[in-house]
Amino acid sequence: MENWSTLWENIKSFFLEKVAADYVSLILEFLLLAVVYFYIFKVLKGNKATKFIVVAVCFIVMCGITFSFALLDKYGLLLIVIMIALLVFTMFHSEIKRTMLDANSKHSKEALTVSGVQLIIDETIRAVQNMSKKDIGALIVLSNENLPEGIIQSGTVVNATISSQMIEAVFYPKAPLHDGAMIIEGNKIYAAGCFLPVLQSENLPKEMGSRHRAALGITSVASVTAIVVSEETGIISIVKNGAIKKRYADASDLKNALSEYYWSDLTAEGKSI
Q1: β-pairing, 156-161 with 181-185?
Q2: Which of 27-36, 80-89, 151-160 is predicted least confidently?
Q3: pTM greater than 0.70 (yes/no)
Q4: Was domain 114-262 assigned CATH 3.40.50.300?
């Protein structure tokens, strides 16, 4: 009972003395911590780190109780907050970067309808499968305008309508843009010949070359999907969130990946997204 009495006295003292004397500073501190934890938990939730969220919440509640019993001063509590923030940044730095890029995403897939999307999907699948049969290497990135501007500037802005002929022409071995990545945004081939950050890892199989490393690299820092056609084997791979989600992808796998990209916000025939 004595502990509860102490807690009650500390709460009254906090609101009657500290809050009244320095309420502006306390409000600013509260807002700052609220914003910090909002983004921390947003990153954790987006990456399905539910258990980590539960542990962090319990830890914060315990720190609050300790602070209420006057066993910890506010500077000690601030140190713990900073340590948690640094821990999250260290463990999820790629996810944080991806979230920051998504914040600038415009998601402007202009005037797309169900029939229009289906045509684009069919044309893209046809091009990828044709290149696979001919062992023509390709790297296609499905973007929501959330790529760093430097990546776009490293290539050539095309702004062309999506068709199997256009995609295959870009990746034709003697074409000037075939070595880089193609960036698709909505119903347009926005850019081609773009250079992407390459994942540096010694654990990848030897048959995965620079295109696979580039696909893994860009999907690690941005919420995009990459489709890779191996120049050596013709194998099609689908890459997302810094991992190969499907190797030896067939038409059905490609359709699912493209549908997820195009139809996430499309709900009816003739409705724009």
Answers
A1: unpaired
A2: 80-89
A3: no
A4: no
